[in-house]
Each structure stands twice: as C-alpha cells, then as structure tokens.
Amino acid sequence: MERATIDFGIDLGTTNSCIGVLKGTLVEMFRNNEGSDYTPSVIWIDKNNALTVGRMAKQQLENDKDNAACEFKLQMGKDTDYEFKRSGRKMKPEELSSEVLKSLKSDVKKRTDENVEAAVITVPAAFDARQCDATRKAAQLAGFTFSTFLQEPVAAALPYGFLSRSEKIRWLTYDMGGGTFDTAVIQVRDDVIQVVNHEGDNYLGGKLIDWDIVNHLLVPKLMKERKLRDFTLVNPKWTSAFAKLKMQAEESKIRLSNDKSTEISIEYLCKDDNGEPVEFEYNFKREDMERLLEPYVLRSINLCKKVLADKKLGVGNIEKILLVGGPTLTPYLRQRLADPNEGLGIALESDVDPLTVVARGAAIYAGTQRIERDVKRPEKAGQYNLKLEYKPIGADIEPLVGGTVLASSEEDLSGFSIEFVNIDAHPQWHSGKVLLGKNSTFMINLWAEKGRQNTFLIELYDSKGTKHKTDPDRITYTAAVDLEDPPLVQSIGIALANNEVAVFFKKGTSLPARKVSPHKIAYDVRCGQTDSVIKIPIIEGENRRADRNIRLGVLEIPASKIKHNILAGSDIEITIVIDKSRMICTKAFIPILDDEFETVHKFEKESADPQQLKENVETEAARLAKAKERAGTTTDLKAQQIIMKIEDEKMEQEINEFINSPSADKETADRCEKRLRDLTISIDELEDALQWPVLLAEAEEQVKSTRDIVTAYGSNSDKLKMETLENEINKAIGSRDADLLKSKIGELWRLGNVIMSQRPEHWTDLFHDLENERDKMTDQARADVLFTQGNRAIDSGNMAELEAAVRQLLRLLPTNKQEGLKALDPKKRVSWII
C-alpha cells in the first residue's frame, strides 16, 4: 500500500547526513553499509570515474584531495563549481548534495526494498531563500518527487516534545553543526508545539574551529621547523598537506572531549623545499582548543540571548537547553553554556543522540505531512476510491475525518454507509455506520488512544449491508501533540527608493502566504528607451535599512514591454506569494498599462568580489574608529556594550584575517562578507546609540510640528492616528529602540506631509523651492520643460498637473537634495519603489 504520509526525514548536514522514518511513535534510523547511523557528506570520484559517498570518500580527503569534495552545503545557492581534476568533471553544490541524498535513499532501498519518493529535509534556520531553492534542486536531482523543508532547530526539539505531557514548557535548542549554528525557542502548550523565535548563522560551526586549529596552531609550528615556500591553501602544491592537517585537527578536537591533551602525528605530510619528506608532530592541549573556541561560543551565546530578548524572554523562562550537533559534546562548550555569569545558566539536555536528533525530528514532522495524490473515479463498477481529509498526527483523541467516496460514473451510491474501526484499541472501537451525504461525502469523529499510533480500518456498505473494499482501506492516526507548520525564518519585503524596506511578510509568518500592496513608481519610465526599466528588489532580513539585508532577486520590467511613457508617481500594485517551501513568486500590476508582470525567482548568488570586499572593509574600519572616538567622550552604557561585543567576538580581527589571508578562497570571501555585514550592523547600532540624544530631540520636534498640523488641518481620523503615533514613540523611547524611533518619526512626518499636501499651497510652495534649486538639476533640458509645465498648472489652477511636475523635478535633484524636499502621495499613504 502506498504511504499516506511522507514519514521519511533527512538531516542533510555539512559534515554528516542521515535518514530516519517514523514508525508509530518511534523513529527508526537507517544504517549505511558500514553500520553507522550517519554518512559523511563527502564525495570522491576515483580513477574509473566512479562516484563514492561517505566514509571511504572522506578518507580520500587526505590522499586524493583533488578528486574529493566536502562541506559543500555552505556553498548552496552560490555560483560555485567543485572540480574533480582527474576526470575534469565539475559539479555544483546542489549536484553534490543530491549524491548524498541518493546515498541515503539507497540505504533505505537495501534494507526495506522501498524507493523513497518524498522526504522532509532539514535546513539551517539562517538559510535564505536562495539556499532553500538550491536544496530543492538537490532533492529533485536525487529523484524525490516531493520534498518539504524543516528548520534544523525546530526538528531538534520534536523528539523531546512529540510525546510530552507537559501543559506548558519552553526549551531553547542549541544546534552547532559542522558549518552552521541555529537556535530556537520552542514552546509546548496545550498539546501544541510552537516555534516562538529562531536565529542562525551559516558561518559558525565545527569546521571553522578545525581550520583555526590548522591556521593558528599547526601551520605556525610547521613553518618554524621546515622550509615550505608559499605554503597556503590555495596553492595546488600543498592541497594534500592542508587536507591532512585539517583531518587531524578534526580528529584531535574530538579526542580532546575526553582527554586534556592529545598527540597529532603525521608520518608523511609532504616534501619540503629541499625535497625532504616532512614528518609532523604536535602536542595539542585542551586549553589551546578552548582559546580558539571562545569567540565562536560567545557568538552563539549572543545569538541565544538575542532570540530570547526579541520575545522579551529571560533565562528564567526556559526550562532546558537541548544540545544538538557534534561540537556540543565538547566539555568547555557545555561548561560555558551552563555558567550563569558567562553563559546562559540553563540546564542542559542531550538524552537524544545529538548527531541524529535532527533527522529524528524531521521524520516526526514527516509523519504529519500527507502525500497529496490525485484520486480519480474508478473505471469499473464495484471499485471505490476514497478522497480523504484528516490530520495524521494531533492532540485530539477524537479527530475528525472527512472525505468523498468515488465510484464509477454509472454507479449510484444512494443508501451506502461507511464505518471506521480502530483495530488497535482494546476492545476494538467502532464509529458506527454513517450514511453518505450529498455527492457521496461523509464526516466522522474517530476515537484514538493517546500516546500511540492508531490504525482504523475503513468499511464501506451498500444499501443491502454488503461490505465492499475501498482504496485506501485504512488510515493511521497518532494521538500525540499538534505540530504547527514551521514559520517563515526571515522577513520578506521590497527595497524602497529611500533604502527602507516595505515588509510584506514578517519573520514568523505561517506559510503559505500571499500579500498585495500598492506603491508608487519613483521615476519616469519612457517607452522605447533601452535603459528605462522598473526594478523591484526582493529583500530578505530584519534590518530596516534595505542594503543591510540579503537581496534575493529583482523583478525587472524592461522598457521593451512598456507600451507608453509612465510618469513618476504612477501606481503599481505588487504581489508576493510564498509557498510552504519558501518558493517566492512576485507580480507587478501597472494600472496605467493594464498589464501584469510576473517572475518566479531563480536565485543564484555570485561569490563576493575580493577587491570590493577590501574596499568595504576599509570603509567600515574608518566608521568604527570614528564611532569609538566619539564613544570615548561619553558614558553611554549601550554604546560601551556594543563596542565590547565587537571586540569580544573579534569581528575586526576575524575580518582582517580573512581579507589578508594568502589562502583566501571563495568560501573565505563569503565568510568575510557575512562577518562584515555583522560588523556593519553593529556599527549602525553604535552610531544610533551615540546619536540617541539628537534622535530624542528630533522626535520631540517632529511630535510638536505634526501635532500643530493635525490640530490646524487634520480630520478626526488624523487626530486618532496622531495619538497612536505619540504612544508608539513613547514606547520606542522607553525601549531605546533607535530604528523603531526613526521609523515612527518618519511616520509622523508622513502624516503631517499627507495633510499639508492636500492643500494647494503645499505644491505651489514646493514648486517655488525647486525653482531655487534649478541650477542643480541633473537634466537641465528636462527641467526646463517641467518648470514650464508647473507654471502653466499654477496659472490654470490644475493641481494634479502641478503635482506631477513637482514629483518629476524632485527626481532630477541630486540625492542629498531630494531628502529635504520629497513629498509622498497626498491621496494614498503608500511608498515609492525603485
């Protein structure tokens, strides 16, 4: 019988991957040919061009690195090629990941003879839409007809909460894997498991510690002892040597979980500049590893504190930390987490194997996901297919099941009845016969025993009481807890012309989701001009500044598709649709054209440009130095805390190591880009903290100014909005949220601006202000035409024509001149798009 639910869960990891299946209320892990629950995520192509996945491939990282690939999960969604030199074969990260998935499918096939067609695949909480899209491609390449994703920290909590009897409890998952870190607040309340909040970092994991061991401990000792010219990772001559050092670093790090010191011994590493074989030995001490581990642990703790603070939770609100991932076996990491002063001070829990808990959680979630099949009417009389609607897992012991009985077109089901029998109950439970309703539909409440999987036989009877077989002939229901669908991991919106973000879906939104939002086109688009194009950048992230977030893609409407000129200020209606797997579709409808434009985003990110990165690093270093100098003259506590965070996490040091590294590769550049974004946002926060007194004064002035306008010219609705905004500004001041305060100051300004812009003198005054800036217009010929249009509109009293001229003139000013003059639409409180 075909599966009614997905049931299979996969942890597609940076270092290791594994697969499990839900059987009743228990998860069974599938072992590979070597008897292990997990398979190394490593690919090797041998001299016969045969591709191998797993432990044997991992062993070749030392001896045949040019033909092996590992840790490719971190490059998902990026334009990266992994080349296997002997064969000349090149593979994308998603192609390599698909081979790992195929290997896991094969393990199931060998043991059960079942071909896995659908699976829940876990992804880090910090994976953006591009990376999820690449994971989707990997699943398709591996032969999955259907796949859905679950965030790793959510999956990690499910084995603990699935059969929980607690009425109300909160946990914090702490998931440090090979290359990523995730944390989430999970709540079990009234038999429902909910994700309260989550955070993650795609460049924080065990492999980074391995490379620190290599670069900061092993290589310096080696260089002191032997002559090795240009001994860098990117030098092909030393590829094998670095692979051996990396492997030894990983293995010795694991040994130090039990021992205070360990010997690293490599009988043959490479040949030195004189052609002599190099034997390498190093006494690796636990305190050396802990010193390297410290900034990573601190970063993870800061993320945990953030995920709590965002929901106004403290450590006292969390019962325990659920540990996930191999690095959490490290004694130092556990000690730091449990420390109430330097860590979180919350009890630690690792009863479920940290290496397989994510796959187990994915399998539990898979058991809640029905496989949607196209149920058709049978061709022969006497055959009956069922189209069912029900939840496979839930907290209700009297679940509702509904459906339709489909028979051949010539058969009449009048007088037919249906009954469900729980054959696992003692004694057996019967629903009783329920007559089919109109269109052969039915709805029945079942009864299930708590804490187990219940099997219900389906019995169909005709009007004479004769029983007939159905397809399917049974369903299963597990009475455990309700599992909420995983929420959106990052907010999604569009970038506006003023570098703000118009948020369509906030982080935590239930999926699927759809939203339509009106906006204004910010500049003229002329028919026939090849360079005239409307661009709608799609943004993912939580920062209110668009350029601080991840740009997922752009919906472009080229001038070739535009039938006639579109003036600045014209309406545009934007729709964003996201499905359960975070596939994004964007549409734009332009009323003046009566046309809609659509794109399903195909995300592909190029790796960071090293030269541009270097320039950006210099810019941010100058900003930080200036901010630190200003902070030295104040006693502002928040500013000092931000500086301490930057220094404790060694942001500058880490970035400078990346940027100056002679062995910098694509992944190093991507890590540098991520850490640079972290530093940039921290400097933003520092500048906001230092600007706080000025911001308070600005808020006070804007409140007074807008209140005067509302009092003099506002409607009752405007006065109500004013009162609401004042309350929100007071809350922002109370929580010292600079970004929120800036946003509310902007809303106040817009409220006053909208009221004033409804008055004819507003546009006249603004037009005359622009006349004083005439010599600064970027297109003098165009400006002359618009000033003529504006004067004509004033003379004739045509305010609509005057408004159009003013808006277009504003676009001809340099950006720094626009901000003080730009007005929003007086009729609709909407935003301008790029």
Automatic annotation (TrEMBL):
Belongs to the heat shock protein 70 family. This is Heat shock protein 70. Keywords: ATP-binding, Nucleotide-binding, Stress response. It comes from Candidatus Magnetominusculus xianensis. The keyword ATP-binding applies. InterPro entries: ATPase_NBD, Heat_shock_70_CS, HSP70_peptide-bd_sf, Hsp_70_fam. Gene3D superfamilies: 3.30.420.40, Actin, Chain A, domain 4 (3.90.640.10), Substrate Binding Domain Of DNAk, Chain A, domain 1 (2.60.34.10). PANTHER family: HEAT SHOCK PROTEIN 70KDA. The keyword DNA damage does not apply.
